Amino acid sequence: MRREDVQPLLLQAADQLPEPELADAAWAAGVRTSRRRRRTVVISAIAFLVLAIVASILIEAGTSGNADITPPTNPPGYVEPSGRISGIDFWVAPPPGSERFLDRLATPLGDRLELPDKVRPLAKHTLESVAAVVLVKQGDRYAPVLLGGDGSWARADVGLVAVGGELPLSPGAVAPDGRTVAFPQPGELVTVNASTAEISRFPLPEGEFSSVSWVEDRQRVLVSGPGAAYQVLVGEGGDGEQAVVQVSATNDPNEATSPYRVQTGAVMRYLFNGQWMEDSPLTLPVRSWQGQTMSSNSAAARVFVAEKLPEVPTRVSQPQVLAAISTLRTVPSRLLVLGEPQDNPPTFEGAGDHPFVRETGCCVVLGWYDDNNVLFRVHGWVLAWNLDSGRVRRVTEMRVDQVALGPGLRL
Questions:
Q1: pLDDT value at position 339?
Q2: How far apart are CA 332 and CA 294, in angstroms?
């Protein structure tokens, strides 16, 4: 073959080959490159995040080699606990006679809770939310006077009688929505709707019922007396539901409370069917319980008279303790010991400033301002205890015999 014959043969062979798709090849190469770049970016971002987390943990752990995470700082005004009782941190409340000098928690109750000179009928002045309820004596009966969240007063047109020689007003009288108030009466339950002025009566078996506590659904009320308790349907019930259901009771009328009741040995949960279930065991040096159990979203609080407390010796009074028992495993329980008068009390300014000795029945839980502040009554005062900081503040000086508080208390 001659050299000059090679070029024509190469051209002839090239004509028989398929033409390459250069655009497709370029697109495929670009996709591969883009995928490689995305993988690189994602891997780099994950690596940066992991390094940031590790660096944060190392910074919090400090340079001492302690791997524990540093707990959050304490809130402003934090008070260190005084010690532990039955494995629970406790604080000691300010002594009686010093309440006026405490910082104040502002509420519609004002500096002093006393009956107003003039009160409008509830039928002419309804309330959206009840902050407090007191009773006014009218002959041999008592009229409920309601304080609204706006600071105005109204009187319900109903006459209540004393039950067993005591005022028919329980700390748990006000419904969770702040609109309805319930009162125990012999053989019946009486409710007052503050937003409509409607008064309703629900018959009960014979008995002297002295305590009421609302069930969380606001449709039912627990009514109790010595050795007897009932669940009363006051709203819409289920198909075929009984209006009155008997509830397991004790000789202490104040123990029938919902959703929890704190008693010696256990915290009990109400099951909406007249029965109770143990929620958690409880070991405290209890001689007797005082008042009702009042529950928040995370704790149940009640006052008890204690046996002798080596941790807080007393000279002239029986030690009394406000127990805020957690109903959540992640939140600790707390105790507030109500102390004795000081040897050199401050100057008296009012009836509530006398350094009273803490006697049985002097102090009860009244409710909750919010999940962190439990409200309780001592002689002449309503106080608030902040569970986060341990601080005790004054709420109002009491110039009334008894009071029930409601959610309208929150400003």
A1: 83
A2: 17
Burial class (CB in 10 A: 0-12, 13-18, 19+), 399: middle
Query: Phi/psi at 400 (nearest 5 deg)?
Result: -130, 160
**23: enclosing H helix or E strand:** helix 22-61
Segment 244-252 shows an average pLDDT of 93
* pLDDT tens-digit map of 89-140: 999 999 998 999 999 999 999 999 998 888 999 999 999 999 999 999 999 9
Residue 42 contacts by C-beta under 8 Å, 6 or more apart in sequence? none
Query: Which phi and psi (to 5°) does residue 61 adopt?
Result: -70, -25
Q: Count other C-beta atoms under 10 Å from residue 40's C-beta.
A: 10
User: What are 360's two structure tokens?
Assistant: 């049985």
Q: How many Å apart are CA 175 and CA 72, to the nearest integer?
A: 36
Residue 117: its pLDDT value, please? 87
- What would the pLDDT profile of 73-90 be if each residue is shown by its tens digit? 677 789 999 999 999 999
- Specify the pTM: 0.80
In this structure, are strands 392-398 and 112-113 parallel, antiparallel, or unpaired? parallel
DSSP one-letter code for 59: H
DSSP 137-155: EETTEEEEEEEETTS-EEE
| Euclidean distance between CA atoms 147 and 284, whole angstroms | 37
The DSSP secondary-structure symbol of 97 reads T
The pLDDT, as a whole number, for residue 303 is 98
Quick: pLDDT tens for 355-405.
778 888 889 999 999 999 999 999 999 999 999 999 999 999 999 999 999
Of 265, 354, 275, the residue nearest 304 (C-alpha): 265
Q: Would you tell me how many other CB atoms lie within 10 Å of the CB of residue 108?
A: 19
Sheet holding 220-225, edge to edge: 211-214, 220-225, 228-233, 244-246
CB 358 within 8 A of CB 341: no
Backbone angles phi, psi at 48, to 5 degrees: -65, -40
Beta strands in 198-284 (DSSP E): 199-203, 211-214, 220-225, 228-233, 244-246, 260-263, 266-270, 276-281
Alpha carbon distance 219, 77 (integer Å): 40
In single-letter form, the type of residue at position 6 comes to V
Rounding to the nearest 10 degrees, give the CA dihedral for residues 169, 216, 367, 365. Answer: 70
Residue whose tokens read 């319900």: 156
Q: What is the Cα 35 distance to its own chain's centre?
A: 55
Half-sphere exposure (Cβ direction) of 185: Cα atoms closer than 13 Å? 16
